[in-house]
């Protein structure tokens, strides 16, 4: 074999080996997830996971989604195989996916096992912090065989720019409302609380147990927040303001510090989240200056 022929053979061998190399990683349940080649048919079982796959550049491989997967527009045309009621394993099977991305808080363990028995790799993801977005992007990138480094870096730069802009702002004590009847907030270590902190605000109910605890009106009056943030807790800003108008002895209502933001860019941990945070910060800054 000549040197040139050997070089061509070696190059071809390396390329073939690289393409055929199996992909192996662990999901957020510490389960091993293995693929023999990058995923070509992907099903996503949560709207934020749908967005992350599209953001990663693998949107054309998505063949099925969860209910409310409404961004980008292309995702709305895909078959919906899951909702708050659960996953239709039969519909998933009909789509013949080689990869299913599931949300830990939105899927039952028995459904994960049933889907896995179909022969699909199942990656169960948890997303509670802003840092989970680039981490999960990189996981999707590995599973789909795409380079997500520029997207992840852009997300980090956007967050850092907002942090710098609002650093040192006077702290504003807020009630974060994600549902009005019954009153529901977000507590603990959560990306929505991180968003508030980036904007120079603190959630007065961050110390409660659970992720989305119910609160009473008595508790709200007792903690008397300086502002109320409604994150998709009403159909629009007018309805949100009307819901709070009769609570005029609260400091937030008295000072007209009622801030309404659309839900999808602040309640979903995606690459659009920095845009939602920037909008939240702008609205809170306006409330702060009243």
Walkthrough of the structure:
With 290 residues, this protein is α/β, with parallel strands linked by helices. The protein has helices at 3-20, 47-56, 89-95, 109-116, 132-144, 149-166, 191-198, 217-223, 237-244, 251-254, 264-267, 273-288; strands at 23-26, 32-35, 42-44, 62-66, 80-83, 86-87, 99-103, 121-125, 172-177, 201-203, 227-231, 258-261. It is elongated and about 60 Å long. The chain has two domains: 21-149, Rossmann fold, CATH 3.40.50.1980; 168-288, 3-Layer(aba) Sandwich (Rossmann fold). The strands form three sheets. A six-stranded mixed β-sheet has the order 6-5-4-3-7-8, sandwiched between helices. It has a four-stranded parallel β-sheet with strand order 10-9-11-12, with helices on both faces. The termini are far apart. Helix 2 (47-56) packs across helix 5, helix 5 (132-144) runs antiparallel to helix 6 (149-166) and helix 6 (149-166) packs parallel to helix 12 (273-288).
Describe the structure concisely for a colleague.
This protein has 290 residues and is an alpha/beta fold. The chain contains twelve helices and twelve strands. It is elongated.
